[in-house]
C-alpha cells in the first residue's frame, strides 16, 4: 500500500461522484411519499405501493442488465445510468410546474430510478476492480462506507429544512442535479478502461440472466453471505415503518425526536467504517466479518422494550448506534470479499443479482411485516423481527474461503493521487 493509502486521481473522481449523488439522495429522502400525500392527496395504500412496487418492479427490470453490463465497458454505463436518473427525476418538477403531475408518473419514476440504481452499483463494483489492486479494495470500500454514513448524517436534516422552506419538489430537483454532477465527475476521470474479457460475445444468451445467481450459489461463502445479508437487511428495514407508528403514534414522540433517534446513531457507521481496515489488519478478514456480522444481529431485539420519554429515546439511540457501528465494520469487508472472490468478467452480474435479491426481499418483508404489525401490533412485530435476527449469524461463513484459482490482471495505474 502506498503511504497514506492514496488510490489515484481516477478513484478520487469516482469517490467524489459517489458522495455527490449519495448526498442528493439523502436530501430528497422521503420526498416521494410527501409529494404523494401533500400534492396528489394519496392514501396509505398508494403510499405503501409507491415504496414497495417501485423497488420490486425496478429489481425485476434490472435482472437482464447485469449480464448486459458485463459485456461492455463500465464507465460509459455509469455515466448513462446517472443521466437516466437525472432525466427521470427532472420530469417530476417539470410536470408539477405544468400542473400535470400524477401518481402513475411518481410510480414510473421510482421504477426507473431503482433500475438505474441497481445497474449503476453493479457497474461501479466491476469498474472499481479494474481500477485498483486487490489489496486496495478494502480501503476504497471503507471510504465509500464512511461517505454513505456521513451523507446519512447531514442529508436528511438539510433536506428537512429545504422541504420546510421550498417544498418536497425542490429536494427532487437537488437529487436530480446530484446525478448530473456525478455523471460529469465520472466523465472527467479520463484514462483507459480495459475492454471486457468476453469480447467474443456480441449479445446476451437466455442463460446469462441467471448467471449471477449460479455463480453465487456455486461459491459456499458467497452463498451464505447472500442469505445472511438478504435476511438481515430485510428484517431490519421491515421494522422501519412500524417504528414510525410506535414512536410517533403510540408513544407520542415528537417528529424531531424521531429524526434524532435515527440520524445521530449514523455516527457509529462512520466510526465502524474507519476501523474496518485496522481490525482486518490485526485479526484477519474472515474473523472480523464473522464477528461483526454476528454482533450486528444482537441489537434490534432491544427495540421491543422501547418506552416513552427520554429513557425510550436514549434506548433507540443506543440500540441503533450499536447496530450501525457493527454494520459499518461488516459492510466494507463483505463488499471487498465479493469483489475479490468474483472473476472480473462476472462482477457486474453477481453484484446485480445480489442487489436484485436484497431489494426484492426487503420490499416483500416490509409488506409482510406491515400485515403483522396490523395483526399483532407494532411492538410485537418489531420484537418478532428482533428474535428472527438472532438466528442470522448461523448463515455466516464458517471458514475462510480459498482464493480464486485464476490470476487477476494488474490494472494500469494512472498518475495522480486521491
UniProtKB/TrEMBL annotation:
Transmembrane helix recorded as keyword: yes
> Which CDD domains does UniProt cross-reference here?
MFS_MefA_like (cd06173)
Q: Which GO terms describe its cellular component?
A: plasma membrane
Q: Where are the transmembrane segments?
A: 12-35, 47-65, 77-97, 231-250, 256-276, 288-307, 313-339, 351-372
Please verify whether the record's keywords include Transmembrane. yes
Q: Where in the cell is it found?
A: Cell membrane
Kindly report the protein's main subcellular placement as a broad class.
membrane
- InterPro entries cross-referenced by the UniProt entry: MFS, MFS_trans_sf
Q: Which UniProt keywords apply?
A: Cell membrane, Membrane, Transmembrane, Transmembrane helix
Q: Which GO-annotated molecular functions does the record name? A: transmembrane transporter activity
User: What is the topology of this protein in the membrane according to its UniProt annotation?
Assistant: Multi-pass membrane protein
Give the protein name, as stated in the record: MFS transporter
The species is: Sphaerisporangium melleum
